[in-house]
Amino acid sequence: MTLFHDAPHAATFGDDALLDRLQTPVWIFDIEQERMRYANAAALRFWEADTPQGLYARDFTSTMSETTRRRLADYLPRLASGEVIDEHWSFYPGGQAVSLHCRCSRVVMRDGCSGMLVEGVDSAISQDASSLRALEAVRHSPMMVSVFDGQGRLLVRNPAALEARQGLASFHACFTDHALAERLLPQLEDEPRCSLDAIMQINGGERWHHVDLCRATDPQTGRPMIVMGELDITSRKTLEAAQLVSRRQLEVVIEGLELGLLLEDEHRRVIVANQAFCDLFGLDASPESLAELNCREAAHSVKEYFTEPDAFVARIEELVVEGRKQTRDLLTMKGGRFLERSYTPLFVADEYHGHLWAYRDVTRQKRQQAYWARQASTDPLTGLANRRSFDDAAGEVARSVEREEIEAALLMIDIDRFKAINDSLGHAEGDKGLKLLANTLKDNLRPSDLPCRTGGEEFMVIMPDMAPEEAESVAWRLQRQIAEASIDAQELPFHFTVSIGVTRFRPGDANIQAVTQRADAAMYQAKHEGRNCVAVHW
Ligand SMILES: Nc1nc2c(ncn2[C@@H]2O[C@H](COP(=O)(O)OP(=O)(O)OP(=O)(O)O)[C@@H](O)[C@H]2O)c(=O)[nH]1
């Protein structure tokens, strides 16, 4: 019997070619022998076989897994009882996984053996190996993966998501902040993906999750769907919150310090600076605005504040390049301010990560020190050098003379009959005379000369680089100038004169006592010679 007489490619009923006309794969598998016994043309294409004989000769035994064997063994009694089994199978015809919806039934072959007739019912649903592996990966992934439709209704979730969230079936229900979920859905219509950290609802309460959202298309329906991947980051968030608190605590300390602080990284960029730093350098900027600033450029922009600008910059480079150890130094600023600077390199696990500059205005302390130094070396009534300074300076000059580097002279000046002035007018008035004498000396000596008040009304003048004859004439000039000054001084209710002894520093003097004794002797000689005069004792 034939069908379709006129059709050129018509197949004959009962002919295998008839089955070849089917577009769905059909084959017979001998379960016991694990061999193909029949395959139609669609099945040959499906199995990527060129000829039926090639496929029948194919060795399935070596490729079949134990799971497959067990599944087939389960089939045997069911098929024998006449059951038609409808199930999905994954095959690897050309090394690639293909999923096929199969309808399996028992057939008896010509040789009487039983075979399994397989009809591929829905071969359109197929996936390549990488998709299947990806699905497998998602199944085992600790990341929670859920898939929702365009309205946020749950379609599927992987075991991790299932375990974390049972019963919460909608996209919105996953989020603690429902308004956020409400915003995300339309946002995903505009952007294909987005990521965020959010507090999510899970079985045991609320957790921080990192959420990755991505728009996709349902491969079955072609409708939009949303894939959501979640990772629990609660411990990271807790740590971050603790770090934030420590950072803020550190910031409060830095901000509260009077020390000007500037932390640089290893690339010489500012990491953090405080207000005190800006104030010290007179910067009209907030500490925050200094972040990222190039410190080399910054050093050049403030160098003019220092008495030695280039040295300031050079020292920074020196410390950074070579230093690498904690250092402290003193900087002098124009206008008389002093800054103490400390440099501390920052090492983490022996690796250099930048350094901290700490600046402190020590002007007050420096002035205090200078004040105490002056107090220790200056006579408070006249402002002249005191006995201690005289001893130091005279010792210095004596050593230079000893080395024959210079000639030097020494004057001893004593007010004539000062006791009578004190006795008649009182000490306070007498002090005015002492001050006038000191000022007259200051006004009429060279800068290199050192006038000193070495006793009550006893004054000395150290004159380095001074020849003896010149020293004598200077002494006579001073004697005159002092007398005249006392006459000219309006505020002084008395006149006075002085007697001056002149001597020179000798190279052979054993100590400064020798030279002061000669000056003393010369001065007493002047007193003997009638006072208001000069006597020399070389
Ligand atoms: N006003 C005042 N007088 C002082 C000070 N120190 C010392 N004297 C006085 O200086 C006077 C020194 O006198 P004397 O050295 O005895 O001799 P003089 O009266 O100056 O007479 P001649 O030195 O011999 O010319 C004393 O009356 C001291 O009290 C001081 O700081 N202020």
UniProtKB/TrEMBL annotation:
EC number: 2.7.7.65
SMART domains given in the database record: GGDEF
Xref: Pfam families: GGDEF, PAS_4, PAS_8
Location of the GGDEF domain: 406-538
UniProt xrefs under InterPro entries: Diguanylate_Cyclase, GGDEF_dom, Nucleotide_cyclase, PAS, PAS-like_dom_sf, PAS_4, Rev_trsase/Diguanyl_cyclase
Enzyme class: transferase
Gene3D superfamilies, per database record: 3.30.70.270, PAS domain
Record bears the keyword Transferase: yes
Highest taxon of the lineage: Bacteria
Alphabetical UniProt keywords: Nucleotidyltransferase, Transferase
Catalytic reaction(s) noted: 2 GTP = 3',3'-c-di-GMP + 2 diphosphate
SUPFAM superfamilies recorded: Nucleotide cyclase (SSF55073), PYP-like sensor domain (PAS domain) (SSF55785)
GO molecular function: diguanylate cyclase activity
NCBIfam families reported in the protein's UniProt record: GGDEF
Protein name, UniProt field: diguanylate cyclase
